[in-house]
Amino acid sequence: MKMLFLAVLAPLLQLAAAAPAPGPAPAAELTFPRDFNSTDLLTKRGDGSGVHLVNCDGFGGEGTIIPPNSMVVYCPNDGSCSGFPSNDNRCVMSQNFLFTWEGQAQACTFPTGVRFAWFVNSNAQSQPNFAHVGDGGNQFRAYAGFKDDKHVMFNQGSSPCRSVYYFV
Questions:
Q1: Three-state SS for 124?
Q2: Residue 106: φ, ψ to 5°
Q3: What's the pLDDT tens digit per position in 130-140?
Q4: What does the pLDDT look like over 14-26, one tens digit per residue?
Q5: How many CB atoms lie under 10 A from the CB of residue 54?
Q6: Global pTM?
Q7: Would you list the domain boundaries of the chain?
Q8: What letter would DSSP give residue 128?
């Protein structure tokens, strides 16, 4: 188990040292209007790529039963990431249950062959939305990880799929 942890952690550390990823806009730049919603902050993430750890609730509609599931979603342009992702841009982590994202080094390989590895702190859900709670990376760059506000990114049938964490 330690060897697996080290095998996943070592490339993350190399990526983080080689190319630190920019975080979200500094708090001083974020102004929250009275009718604030998460879309305001999403547009401030910029036009770079992002990776989301997503949970789909699993409620069907009209007699359809969709089990809960979790996936990793790659967004070529994180500032406008919505709609059900293509097969190449999603990596399914679980079927029939919600995946536990926190507390251990984890990874998935997309159908394109790109492998994304990450670590989310075990106490991440107790942190405020948009707080830095982990790091991740692939063979191209390092990403900083943040707690998201669980906004609905897309629907799977009539089941909402929510962004739990995002890496930019």
A1: helix
A2: -140, 165
A3: 999 999 999 99
A4: 444 433 343 333 3
A5: 27
A6: 0.73
A7: 2-167
A8: P
